[in-house]
Amino acid sequence: MGFNLLILRAGGESGRSHIDAWPAKLREAIPDIEINVANSTGEAMEMIAEADAAFGDIVPEVFERATKLRWIACPQAGPRAGYYHQALIDSEVEVTNTRDIYNDHISNHIMSFVLAFARGLHVYVQQQMRREWDSSYEIINLPDSTVVIIGVGGIGGETARLCAEFGMNVLAVDPRVTEKPPGVAELYTPDSLGEILPEADFVIATVPETPATQGMFDAEFFRLMSRSGHFINIGRGATTILNDLVTALDASDIRGAALDVFQVEPLPSDHALWSLSNVIITPHCAGAGPYLDDRRTDLFIENCVRFNDGAALKNVVAKDNWF
To answer: CA–CA separation, 92 vs 276, rounded Å?
Structure first.
């Protein structure tokens, strides 16, 4: 049957990449497919009118020229702010994303934070740099600890499983998940956070940026945490108000924090977080790891085949919630 597909490359996707192999793979899977590749927004504006489906960042000036568009494949799990513009949200165009291809890499990154705090590695590394010998760090015995995981989709679910393997008591919070993922002892809705946060030695945030989660982790949230609790965010930077987090750390309202994502990236060199000894910072690298290009390719081609066959797409986004 075939359909017309527009592939819009982002700036970092030009030249040789896994995307270069897509047209040949797609023609093998769907012989009648028609593929147009745009290397700029201007080129996309000229091609979008005939497209039934598109891959990339379909900005308003491109989207308004679409006449046949039924599906957009977002290149990320959580794209830039504004990707889900109002015209797209109001339309009947389906959007899919790349969630779940990073589950193992990001959950491993989370566990590195948990283990570092449990055994004091963040303290001992700093002591090593100063050639100091002090073994007084108060460890956290993981089988005696409780973790609250906020967001138990693919990443949070895999993190829950790993935490349970270490013997931790896993409490999960999610607005959409209704059945406990493996490893989860209890599942709660977000309105129960106030009840369970004081129990947590670790609070792990994996939530995407949505209208409901922007600024979710604020001064009031940190006041509800235990003074012995650690806050870990690998979801999206916009969910956490960094000034409130710094205030909570300075006041010893919480014991520590580890972050891979920030309100402003790169994190400014003069930001107070850099100087706090109970903070671990990584530069938005939790998703790094092997096989991502292969997974992204497999997901996209499978969805193209599904689209061509009129079957349900994988990873469909609730556009008004951006995820």
So the answer is: 48
Are 195 and 89 in the same domain? Answer: no
Q: How many CA atoms lie within 13 A of 323 on its CB side?
A: 21
Q: How confident is the model at residue 273 (pLDDT cuts 50, 70, 90)?
A: very high
* Domain ranges, residue 179: 103-281
Q: Do residues 205 and 232 make contact, with C-beta atoms less than 8 angstroms apart?
A: yes
Q: Which CATH number is 94's domain given?
A: 3.40.50.720
pLDDT at 285 over 50: yes
Helix or strand or coil: residue 185?
coil
Give CA 149 to chain center in angstroms: 14
Strand order in the sheet with 34-38: 34-38, 4-8, 53-55, 71-73, 94-96
The domain total for the chain is: 2
In this structure, the answer to whether residues 127 and 274 fall within a common structural domain is: yes
Closest CA to 71 of 321, 236, 322, 315: 315
Note whether 85 and 123 are same-domain residues: no
Residues 150 and 273 in one domain: yes
Q: Let me know: does 170 contact 147? Beta carbons within 8 Å.
A: yes
Helix (H, G, I), strand (E, B) or coil at 95: strand
Of 24-28, 78-82, 147-151, 169-173, give the lowest mean pLDDT range: 78-82
pTM of the model: 0.94
Best CA proximity match to 58, nearest among 73, 68, 46: 73
Domain match, 136 and 50 both: no
Residues 6+ apart with CB under 8 A from 275: none
Are 129 and 180 members of one domain? yes
On the question of pLDDT at 64 being above 60, the answer is yes
pLDDT band at 17 (very low <50, low <70, confident <90, very high): confident
